[in-house]
Write a structure and sequence with these properties.
Layout: E1 2-7, E2 20-21, E3 24-28, H1 35-42, E4 49-50, H2 52-63, E5 68-76, E6 79-86, E7 89-96, H3 102-112, H4 122-138, E8 141-142, E9 145-154, E10 157-165, E11 168-169, E12 171-178, H5 185-189, H6 214-229, E13 237-238, E14 242-246, E15 251-259, E16 265-272, H7 280-283, H8 297-312, E17 320-328, E18 333-341, E19 347-354, H9 361-365, H10 378-390, E20 394-405, E21 408-417, E22 421-430, E23 434-446, E24 451-459, E25 463-472, E26 480-493, E27 503-517, E28 522-537, E29 545-559, E30 569-584, E31 587-600, H11 602-605, E32 610-625, E33 660-673, E34 678-690, E35 697-710, E36 713-722, E37 734-738
Parallel strand pairs: 3-6, 7-10, 12-15, 16-18, 19-21
Antiparallel strand pairs: 1-5, 2-4, 5-6, 8-11, 9-10, 13-15, 14-15, 17-18, 20-21, 22-23, 23-24, 24-25, 25-26, 26-27, 27-28, 28-29, 29-30, 30-31, 31-32, 32-33, 33-34, 34-35, 35-36, 36-37
Helix pairs in contact: 3-4
Length: 742
């Protein structure tokens, strides 16, 4: 006997077959949940007697999953069958007329609660459409229209496309700060997102286009009050933004009502903590906000974080630092009270590595400064993340704290690996070097071991360089590193001087080095290098040289930056001295000192701007025989943009070498296409070079650049302008560089 009953997609459907006992319960067309979960959900078991009401209740439970558009129930030979028709999946998702970048779309789709692989329902699509319209409204696009196209790809999948017709955007013509006397409009503009439109060239960097963003508008009042709190005005009150919109002209006026109050000075700072953990007397001198200072909420938060770090460094991972601001309105002073709740000491239970499909666990673990059994230390925790980010093996590093008991935690090290192996074949044209060909095979994390192996060849009109090098940054996972490099270099500099003519130089050599970590950010070592060099001059062959250079170069470097490819904080510094004369013919000294500083401004201005500064000073000393080719040159992307490479290369026709070199550069870097890792920026370079001093020649240049961290390495396109060129200078307005870094 066969009976079949169809239940339409409604929760009030009833069953119209005889109650009974069934030998088995079968599920057909069910992919979203397992049979075991289905049985557990409906709580039906075979060979039990069931009523119509119980089976109907089971169906209602299935509908509550929102996975099914139809469910049918039937019986056959004493078996009970549930047959499901599931909603299709969204296999393709597209947006037209609105966001285009992948990172922006990801955020947008998350806000719409929709993604590829999600189940398609009309309710979900309608909710996503409404969320998209709300996002458009928040960004100031009034009366936008969204149409949704749905195409069936297969019986189980659909493609969904959102077609957006953005409404007219509202432009802010005027922003009024009523009641403000302490600050002017430009001060407020540094804090808020919604600024009034500038009079002209709104497309140019630094100009305001005036486009209203309603989502940010509700946050602008607290931002204005933040400015007052940073300058001691504790009682300042700022109204929510009052917006007047003219829909005929699609323009708006934004108005804030401000009651500034009085400015407060710090009367006292008090810290309550367990003196057995940290002595408060050691903390007070490090605080940024002290007695007699004008109150500043920004400094207070930094002090709060500093106090927490000192306590957490003693193992109290979940310490809380609460502050209380006690104003005295009679004399406009304020007392700041910090109350530290240390909690329990926390030890590391385990360090779990995830996300590394290639890099060996041990390579990651050696850069994590906390191991199982260690007492938690917040500084070690932060430094571990920065150290891993500096290796260049990973695009992103995230270390999470997972508490497993009152006194134990796991560290979950999540990494997203970066491509570290490159096969590069490229080329281009430079104003000085002519046509250039670059080819290299390099992997700075070969087989995931952390070893750096590379072979490269660079060819141009004036240079041919070949090298093969192997570096182990942690020999047997120790604090020692080692390097070996074999190279052949040749160059031809035209018009070296009118006396000597063209100069050809060729050198073949080998370099071996070893270094040791002296601390978390400091490394010291030494390289030994031996090379055979030949120098020939077109016009004075009598001055040709063939010599052996045997040199040792001790060095020490410091690096506490937060990223290998794009640092936003920290600095690098180092110094070395090359002593040639350990045997061989050449006898000279070369000192080289550099400094690089990075500072991200996003916390200050809510925009990903990076300030960068670097300088380099080099000095040559003649200790008996300094070859004629030993002379510094100034100009080009590596030293002075706005001038050709080697634009300034010798002192006079008697070939007195330049033995002193100084260059420095200032840059501001801005995001361009974040998803493609492209940025743009502006720069100012200044350099000096001289024979006995540094100032025989002084030049500067400025301009803009586009940088791209491409799959084949860093590439820069440089548009430059010399600022103080003199007649005869070899200037350059465009150059590019491959493989360099700031």
């Amino acid at each position: 006997m066969f009976k079949k009953f169809i239940l339409l997609s409604t929760l009030t459907a009833s069953l119209l077959f005889a109650e009974g006992t069934f030998e088995n319960i079968q599920f057909e067309g069910l992919t979203q949940i397992s049979k075991e979960v289905a049985l557990e959900t409906i709580k039906l078991e075979k060979e039990n007697h069931y009523t119509n009401e119980e089976i109907n209740e089971a169906i209602n439970k299935f509908f509550s999953f929102n996975y099914f558009k139809d469910i049918s129930v039937s019986t056959k030979e004493n078996d009970l069958f549930f047959t499901f028709k599931e909603y299709p999946f969204i296999s393709q998702l597209e947006m037209s007329g609105y966001k285009t970048r992948d990172d922006e779309l990801e955020v947008l789709y998350n806000s719409m609660n929709i993604k590829k692989g999600a189940m398609y329902t009309k309710k979900r699509i309608e909710a996503a459409k409404n969320a998209l319209l709300a996002a458009l409204d928040r960004e100031g696009y009034i009366n936008s229209v969204v149409e949704v196209e749905t195409e069936e790809i297969s019986p189980t999948s659909v493609a969904v496309k959102f077609n957006v017709n953005k409404g007219e955007e509202i432009i802010i013509k005027k922003v009024l700060y009523k009641g403000a006397t302490v600050f002017d409009d430009s001060d407020f503009e540094t804090m808020i997102a919604n600024k009034e439109e500038d009079c002209c060239f709104t497309w140019f960097f630094g100009q305001n286009d005036g486009e209203i963003d309603f989502e940010q508008l509700r946050l602008d009042s607290p931002r204005i009050r933040e400015l007052y709190l940073q300058n001691g005005y504790l009682d300042a009150k700022v109204s929510t933004a009052f917006t007047k919109i003219d829909f005929n002209t699609h323009s708006a006026q934004v108005e804030y009502i401000i009651d500034e109050g009085n400015q407060y000075e710090v009367n006292d700072v008090i810290i309550y903590l367990d003196e057995d953990i940290v002595k408060s007397e050691t903390i007070y001198p490090k605080l940024k906000l002290e007695k007699k200072d004008i109150f500043d909420i920004g400094k207070l938060r930094k002090d709060q974080e500093y106090i927490k770090t000192q306590v957490a460094n003693q193992g109290y991972a979940f310490a809380e630092v609460k502050f209380d601001i006690k104003p005295n309105k009679e004399n406009n002073t304020v007392d700041i009270v910090y109350n530290v709740i240390a909690g329990d000491k926390v030890y590391i239970n385990d360090v779990i590595i995830s996300g590394n499909s290639r890099t060996l666990d041990r390579v990651i673990r050696r850069d994590v400064y906390l191991v199982p059994g260690d007492l938690f230390n917040l500084t070690d925790f932060k430094d571990s993340k920065n150290k891993l980010q500096r290796t260049g093996y990973f695009e992103k590093v995230d270390i999470q704290q997972k508490r497993v008991s009152s006194d134990k935690m796991n560290l979950i090290v999540n990494v997203i690996e970066a491509p570290t192996g490159n096969l590069i074949v490229g080329g281009g044209y430079g104003s000085y070097e002519g046509w250039m060909v670059n080819a290299s095979i390099n992997d700075k994390n070969i087989f995931g071991s952390g070893l750096d192996l590379g072979f490269s060849i660079d060819y141009s009109k004036i240079n041919t360089d070949l090298s093969i090098a192997l570096t182990n940054p942690a020999i047997r996972d120790s604090e020692y590193s080692g390097t070996i490099k074999v190279y052949n270099e040749s160059s031809e500099i035209t018009n070296y001087t009118s006396t000597y003519g063209d100069r050809d130089t060729s050198a073949t050599g080998i370099l071996v080095g070893v270094s040791k970590s002296l601390g978390r950010h400091i490394r010291a070592g030494a390289n030994y290098e031996i090379s055979d060099t030949s120098v020939t001059y077109a016009l004075l062959p009598a001055e040709n040289e063939d010599f052996i250079t045997s040199a040792v170069t001790p060095y020490i470097n410091f690096n506490n930056t937060d990223d290998y490819y794009l640092p936003r904080e920290g600095f690098m510094a180092g110094t070395s001295y090359k002593f040639a004369g350990i045997g061989g013919d050449a006898k000279y000294g070369l000192s080289n000192t550099y400094f690089k500083y990075f500072y991200g401004l996003e916390d200050l201005i809510d925009y990903d701007v990076i300030f960068r500064y670097k300088n380099n000073i080099k000095i040559l000393t003649d200790n008996g025989f300094m070859p004629n080719n030993m002379s510094f040159a100034l100009g080009g992307p590596k030293s002075l943009r706005g001038y050709e490479s080697y634009a300034f290369q010798s002192n006079d026709e008697a070939n007195h070498p330049y033995k002193n070199f100084f260059s420095n550069a200032l840059e501001l870097s801005f995001p361009m296409i974040p998803s493609a890792k492209m940025r743009w920026g502006v720069f100012y370079d200044y350099g000096m070079i001289g024979e006995d001093g540094f100032d025989d020649i002084k030049r500067s240049g400025t301009g803009a650049f586009i940088s791209w961290n491409s799959p084949v390495g860093p590439i820069q396109f440089i548009f430059s302008e010399p600022l103080d060129e003199k007649p005869g200078d070899k200037t350059s307005s465009f150059e590019f560089s491959l493989g360099g870094s700031f």
